[in-house]
Amino acid sequence: MTGALANPRLLRALLPPVSLILLLAVIFTIQPRAMSYLGLNLMLNLALPIALATIAQLCVIAVNDLDLSIGAFVSLVACIGATILPENPALGLAALAGCIAVYAALGALIHWRNLPAIVVTLGMSFVWLGAAVLLLPSPGGSAPAWLSTLVKLRTPLIPFAILASALLALLVHLFLMRSSLGVVLRGAGGNPQAVRRAGWSLLKTKMAMYALCGFFGVLSGLCLVGLTTSADANIALRYTLLSIAGVILGGGEFTGGRVSPIGAVIGALTLTLAGSLLTFLRISPDWQIGAQGAILILVLALRALVNRTERRAA
Amino acid sequence: MSAAESETRGVRRRLPQMPQAFSFIGAGLIFAATLAFTGGAGGGQILSTALTFATMYVIVGLGQMFVITTGPGNVDLSIPATIALAGAVAMTVMGGEDGMIALGLLAALGTGVAVGCFNYALIRLLQIPPIIATLSASFLVQSTAIAYGRGLRVRPPPALADFATGRIMGVPYLAIATLLLSVLMAVLLHRTVYGRSVAAVGQNSRAAHLAGIRVDRVRFLTYVLSAVLAGLCGAVLAGFSGGSSLNMGEEYLLASIAVVVVGGSSVSGGQSNVSGLWGASLFLYLLVTMLNTFGVGAGLRYLLTGLIIIAIITLAGGPRAGRA
Amino acid sequence: MPHPTAAPSPGTPFVALAAVAKSFGAVRALRGVDLDVRSGECLGLAGHNGAGKSTLMQVLVGNVSPDEGRFTVQGEDVAGRLTVARARRAGIACVFQELSLCPNLSVLENARIRHASLKGFGWRARAARLITRTLDEIFPGHGIAPQALVSDLPLGQRQMVEIASVFAQGDDEAPLRLVILDEPTSSLDNSVAAQLLAHVRRFVSAGGSVILISHILGEILSTCDRIAVMSDGRVVDLRDARAFTRASLVEAMGHVVSDETSDMPAAEAARSAAPVVASATTPRGGSIRLEARRGEIVGLGGLAGHGQTSLLVLLHNAAQGRSRYATLTGRVAFVAGDRQTDGVFPLWSIGGNVTVRSLSRLGRFGLVDPAREKRLAEEWRGRIKIRTPDMDDNILTLSGGNQQKALFARALGSDAEVILMDDPMRGVDIGTKQEVYALVRAEADKGRTFVWYTTEFDELKSCDHTYVFRSGRIVAELGRHELTEARVLQSSFEGEAA
C-alpha cells in the first residue's frame, strides 16, 4: 500500500531534475560545443534573475495566490537599479525597501478584504509599469559598476549562474522547508483554519509571504540590470509567465501550500535552457513563447497522469 | 449558525439597485473635467472617439464578464492572444476584398471557437485552474499569431475600414453595432436558460448542479463565448486600425477585467451588468483622454489606471467575496 | 426537568457549567446546561443529532461564547472571557471531527504548528522525538514515520497523528488537563481504537479529564466513569456509567418515549408493488440495497453525516447517467437541507430561486417568459405559503423556514418525478413542518416519489419505508409498521466497542 503510494510521489519529485537532464542531453547531442564553461555560461546567462523571480512567485503560490505583477515589478526594480541607485545609493535602497513594504501591504489588503489576488496583482502590474515608465521613459540608464561586477563574476570551473542558483535553491529550501518558521508559513497554505486555530496570525503569514515575494523580486531586478547594465520599462514583462511556469515545472501546486524551492529553481533553469534548445534546433524565435506554453502544458498533463495513478492506487 | 448570520446580512430588501451608476457618474465627471480644462473645445470629437474605442473594450468585456460571472477563479487570460490571432486570420482571409468580409469574420469567430474549446479542454482534462489553463493556452496562441502574422501587411477591405471608422451624425457605426450586440448579450444573460445558468453557477456551483444545471456544459459554452467575442474584437480592431498587428491585443488583458469590475459586476461571480460595461469602458477611455489633455505621460496614466482598479475592487469586492 | 444527580466520584470539578445557554438566531442550541467535569474522570457524552453536543464543545474550547450561565475553569469564572488561547493555557484541548492537520506538511512539522515552543536549533529532532514518543505511548506499533507527509498517510493514521499531537506535551507548555475527543474512533480500526481507549484510562488515572463523544455505545459504556445524555440543548440524564446499560442509554436519548406505534394499523399492507424508480447501494459496501417505488416516501435515518447526503447526491447524479452505485429513472429534483452550500442562490429574488429548476419549461421562442415565471412563483407562494410581501424581494429577506419553503417550491413546482430531500426541515418551525408534510403526502399520492433523509424521528413516521445508515452503510431496513424510535436509535449506535 505505502509502496504503491510512494511511487507516484517519487515520480512527481523526479520530474523536474529528469526533464532538466534530458534537455541538457539533447542540447549537448545537437551542439557538443555547448558542453563547456563558455557554452554553459552563455546559455544560462539570464538564468539567475529568472530563478529569483520564480522563487518570488513561489512565495505567493505557497499561500494559494498568484502574482501577475512580478514581471512588471522586476522591470521597475531594474529601472530603479539603472537610474536612482547609481546616483543616490541611499535613496535607491530606500525605494527598494519601499517596494517590499508595498508588497507586504498588498498581502495585508488581500487578506483583510478577501480580494482575488489575480485582480489586485493585475492592477499592480500597471502601477509598477507606470512607475517604471516614469523613471525611465526610454530604454537606457546604467547599472552601478559594483552590481555588474558582482553578477558577472567569473567563478572557476562552474559558471557563476549555476553556483548562485544552487545557493539560492539551498538557502530558500533551508528557510522554507526546514526552518520552524517556514513550516508555519507553508502550513498557512495547506490548512489555514488549522493554523489559525493553533494560534498563528494568518494576516502576518500572508504579509510575510508577500514581503518575501517583493524581496526576491528586488533581487531578481537588481541581478537582471547588473547583467544587462541598462534597463527598460518592459525589460522583464515576460517573467510573470516564466515564473509561474517555473514553479509548476518544479513540482509546485497551485493550491495547498505544496511548493518545492529546489524544484522551482530547476524549473527556471529548464525554461531558460529550453530557449537555447530552440535556437540550436533553428526553430524560429516566433515559437519561443509557444514552446514555453507547450512545455507547461506537457508538464501539467504528465502531472495529471501521475495524480490519476496515485488516486487509483489510494 | 451560518443561516442566522446570513439572515442578519440580508437586511437589504432588494439587490443593489444600480451598481453601474458609479461608472457612468465617473465617466461624466471625467468628461466634465476634461472640458473644463480645454474650455469646452472639442467635446463632440472627444466623445465620438471615446465611443469608438469604448466599443472594443465593451466587446471583449462582454466575454470576460460571462467568464467572471461563472464564479471565483474563472478568468480568461487568453483574450489578447486571441485578438492578435483572429485579427491576422481575418485579414488574411479577407485579403483586402470586400466580397470576402463575411467569410473573414466567420474565420475570426471560428478562431475564437477553436481557442475556447482548447481552453476548456485544458481546464477539464488537466484539472487545472482556469487562470493557468488560459495562460498556457495564450502562450501557444500568441506564438501561432506571431508565426502566422509575421510580415503580414494586408490592408482591411475598404468596406470594413469604412464601417469601422465611419460615423453617422457623429456616432460611430461601430458603437451602434456594439450597442446591438450588448442588447443581444443582455437578453442572452437575463432571458435564456443558459444566461440564468451562468449566474447560478457563479453564485454557487454545487447548488446549481443540484438544481439540475449542467455545470460543465455551461462553463464550456462560456469559455467559447469569451474567445469568440475576443475573435470578433480582433477582426474589428484590425479593420479599424488599417490591418492587424501582433501586439494589438496587449492592452485588452487588464482592460477586459477592469471594465467588468468597474462596471459593477461582482468579481466573485454570479452577478453581471451589461450596461455597466459601457459606463466603465467610457470611464477608462475618457480617463486616458483626460490625462492626455492634462499633459500627463504614459507612466502616470498606467499608474493611475492600476490604482483606480485596485481602489474600486477594494471598495466593491469585499463583503461577498468571503463565500468564495 | 431532570436534574443531574451527583454521582460519587473522587475528583474535584475542573470545569463547571451552570445554566449555560446559547442561541444562534432563532435556534436555541443550548437551553441551560448544567455539567461539571472532574479531575481524574472520563465523562461520556451521548445524544442524538442536534442535541447540542457540538455547541457545548465549542463553548468549552473557547470558540463560542455562551449567552448566559456560569462557566468556571478551576473555580475561576471565565464566562464570556474564554478565548481559544486562554483555553489552551488552561490546558483544554480538543480533537475535532474534521481533521486539523496540514496535509502538505510532515507529521513532525504538524507537531510544530500546534506546539509553538518547538523552534530554534534542532527543533526537527525535538519535534520528531515528541510526536514519536506520544505515538509510541498511545498507539504502540503504529508504524508512522515522523518524516512522512500527512497527505500520504491513510485516514486512520492521520487520525492517530491528530490525536497524538493533541496529547503531546511540550517541555515548557501548560500541562494538559482536559481533552475533548469528538468521535475519535470513527476512522480507526478496532485494535487501534482499543489502544486509544486504554490511553484515555491511563490519562484519567494520572489525574487528567477526558470528554468522550462517540456513536459507539460500547465504547462509552466501557471507558467512561460517568455518562451525560443530552437532548434538546439540555443534559437530561447524568449517571455513573455502571448505572447505564446499552438499552437504558438508548432510551435516555429518545426524548419521546411513548407507544406511538399503537396508532399504526397493526398489520401494514406489504410494500407497494409499483415499479422501482430509484435504487442505490452505498459505496462503502453493505448488503442492503435502497429501493424507492413510484409514489412512495422513503426515509433515510441514522445519525447526521453517516452517508445519507452522499447517497442522495449519488442518486441525483445517476439521473444524468453517471454513477456506478445508483440508478434512477425519470426526472429528479433536490431539496437542500444545508441551504447555504447546497440550495440558495443568495443574489437572486425569491421568485428566481423558485423557478430556476423549471426555466426550460417556461420558455417561449427560446427565451424565458417572465410572465409565466411570475405565474409559477405566485402559484407556489400561495400553495406553500411563503410569507413575503413580494416574490421579487431578495431570498435572504426571508426567514430560514421560508427560504426552505422556497427550496421546496423549487422542487415541487418542477416537472420532477423523483424528489430527493436532504434533511430539509433542520431549524424549521413546527407550523411550516406540518404544512410541508401534508404537501409531500399529497404529492406522493399523485405518483411522485420522495427519498427523504431526516434526522428527526417524527418525520420518519411519515415515510412508507425507512433505511437506517451507520458509518456510510445501510444497516437496517424498516417497514412502516416496524418503525419505532428505539429500533432506529439501536441501529444508529453501534453496540459493541468496535
Give a brief outline of the structure.
The complex is a heterotrimer of chains A (314), B (324) and C (498). With 314 residues, chain A is mainly alpha-helical. Chain A has 14 helices and no strands.
Helix content of chain A: over 70%
The percentage of residues in β strands of chain A lies in under 5%
Distance between the termini of chain A: 8 Å
What does the average pLDDT of chain A come to?
Answer: 89
Query: What share of residues of chain C is helical?
Result: 25-40%
Strand order of the largest sheet of chain C: 6-7-8-3-9-10
Strand percentage of chain C lies at 15-25%
Q: Roughly how many Å is the radius of gyration of chain A?
A: 20 Å
The total count of strands of chain A amounts to: 0
CATH class of chain A reads Mainly Alpha
Q: Total domains of chain A, how many?
A: 1
Shape, per Cα inertia axes of chain A: globular
The poorly predicted ranges of chain C are: 1-9, 256-268
Give the SSE layout.
The complex is a heterotrimer of chains A (314), B (324) and C (498).
Chain A: H1 2-30, H2 37-43, H3 47-62, H4 70-87, H5 89-113, H6 117-135, H7 145-151, H8 160-178, H9 180-190, H10 192-197, H11 202-228, H12 239-249, H13 261-280, H14 288-313
Chain B: H1 2-9, H2 21-38, H3 43-69, H4 79-94, H5 101-125, H6 130-149, H7 158-165, E1 167-168, E2 171-172, H8 173-191, H9 193-203, H10 205-210, H11 215-240, H12 252-262, H13 274-293, H14 298-316, H15 318-321
Antiparallel strand pairs in B: 1-2
Chain C: E1 13-24, E2 27-38, E3 42-47, H1 53-60, E4 68-73, E5 76-77, H2 84-89, E6 92-95, H3 107-114, H4 123-138, H5 155-167, E7 178-182, H6 190-205, E8 209-213, H7 217-223, E9 226-231, E10 234-240, H8 246-253, E11 276-280, E12 290-293, E13 297-302, H9 308-319, E14 326-328, E15 332-335, H10 339-343, H11 350-355, E16 363-364, E17 367-368, H12 370-384, H13 400-412, E18 418-422, H14 430-445, E19 449-453, H15 457-460, E20 465-470, E21 473-479, H16 485-492
Parallel strand pairs in C: 3-8, 3-9, 6-7, 7-8, 13-19, 13-20, 15-18, 18-19
Antiparallel strand pairs in C: 1-2, 1-4, 4-5, 9-10, 11-12, 11-14, 16-17, 20-21
